[in-house]
Structure formats: structure tokens, C-alpha cells
Amino acid sequence: MTVWTIGHSERGLSELAALLAAHGVELVADVRSLPGPGLPRPLNF
């Protein structure tokens, strides 16, 4: 099994989906302890 990671905080949904599709990624899992943004977007560095 191959596991990929991708930075997404500065990407829109369509750009993220295009990158995943371009690399043949078919399944995405959010593995954070609390899914969703941890901080408001401007502070999420």
C-alpha cells in the first residue's frame, strides 16, 4: 500500500481534487484527531 500526503491549507477544493486525480488518488482519509480546521483560515499556518 502506498500512502501519500498533501498540503491543502492554501488550495481550493477544485485545485486539491485536480491534484489528487492527476496522481491517481482514489481515496482520501482525514487522520487528524479532530477533523476540520483547527484554527480560522488566516491563522492556520
Uncertain runs with pLDDT below 50, 5 residues or more? none
Mean pLDDT: 77
**Overall 3D form:** flat
Q: Please summarize the sheet with the most strands.
A: none
Instruction: Work out the radius of gyration.
Output: 12 Å
Report the total helices.
Answer: 1
What is the β-strand count?
0
Class computed from helices, strands and strand pairing: mainly alpha
Describe this structure in words.
- There is one protein chain.
- It is built from one helix and no strands.
- The chain is mainly alpha-helical and 45 residues long.
Features:
single chain, 45 residues, mainly alpha, 1 helix, 0% strand
In a nutshell, what does this entry contain?
This protein is mostly helical and 45 residues long. Helices cover 22% and strands 0% of the residues.
Write the layout of secondary structure elements.
Elements: H1 13-22
